[in-house]
Amino acid sequence: MNMAKDPFHQLDVIRKASQKGRVITDCYRLMYRRELWIKAYFRLFPEMKQPSQEGNLTRRLEGIITLLRTGNYRFKNLCNTHTKKIKKDYTNDYLVQEVICIILDKVFAPRGRAYGYSKHHSEHKVLTHIQHSWKGLTWCVHGNVGNVRCHLNQTSLINYISKRIRDQRFVNLIQQALIAVTRQDSRDIYGKRQQTSLPLLLEDIYLDRFDYLMEKQWKYVIKEFDQPGDGFTPQLQYIRYQNSFLIGVRASKKCVRMIKQGVINLLEHEFYLEWKKVDITHMTRPIPFLDYEFCKVKQKYFHQTKGNDLPIQESTKSYVIQLYISKKMVNQMAFQYGYGDITSFQATPRKKLLHYTEAKILHIYNTELIRITNYYKLAMNGHYLRPLYYLAKASFIKTIAMKRKTSYRKEVKRMSRRKQGGLGLITSHTKDQKNISSLF
To answer: Sorted alphabetically, which InterPro entries does this protein's record hold (predicted)?
Structure first.
């Protein structure tokens, strides 16, 4: 494969060739292009607007590229690295892993309705597809493959990558990066979660083979149960979002059980993953997926038809997919965020936030509530979130009262005076004016 002048154009060529089933070559030489490294740097550190804040970026990138050209680049081990060199060494490792991730993301594009860890694949997009395309299905085989990272077979993953990429130097570098990822601590030198997205992408590539085998298997099952004489053609829809998968089927119960057993055999014998969570549910019953629940319900539609003299109003029934939020999930969110017990409606102060400023505490509560509201905007029963909002409001007041060492009632009166119908908190105070912020 001839190298293009623009590396991003070359990545588009790789993506199109991979979608056609062709074997990809020359991935390692693509890592010599400095434009990819600059993109990887700003993906890792978006707050660094000026490269000078992180040192001489050009010199660092040229040094890494030179080591890759000569084949002398090695991922650092935390146990053998001095404390002063940890930051520089691990930044270089993250850069290499992120460039690998940029290339692999084009080679292993999502297959069909398999949604990986990319930012472009939102949960709402998947749920909307289910609402529009799953109306005619009867059964659903659903489950979760569990923790892929703990059960990931590295040899099987590298063999699968080498079948799609015929570049031994690039495959060897991926293998070294995979060993470094499993060796590194879950928290990096900055005290945050690991910044590179390579571990998640490798998990998704590992499950890409699962998608391929699933597609191959259900075609065999549908062909086995398709009887041309009875006028009934089985249908199947498959969706995987990260570790959760759904198989919607319009067929007999025997066919659905056969599909479930095939999924269990794949997870147990091919991937050594958990299979106890695989279950069969009728589409008219609630099916959990992505912290939602969806089911198929009948809905009446009224329309007018022309009669002899007057228009006649007729009603027709059809199935629609509706999304819900369960009470169990609301209880889990109240416990997860530390708002308190929603069943007895006992709010608790969040002691871990007491060392923050009052404006920061207010910002944390508002961010959490806005995130919850935006995520569950597709739910038909959004009013189930109201008790959670009231509990969060009481938890916020108790947290501020504990920080100020006053009572709950005093803080309610003090905040209610500033905002009519809501709670107001002074976030900044000058001689001329007061800035008052309100709780969501």
So the answer is: Domain_X
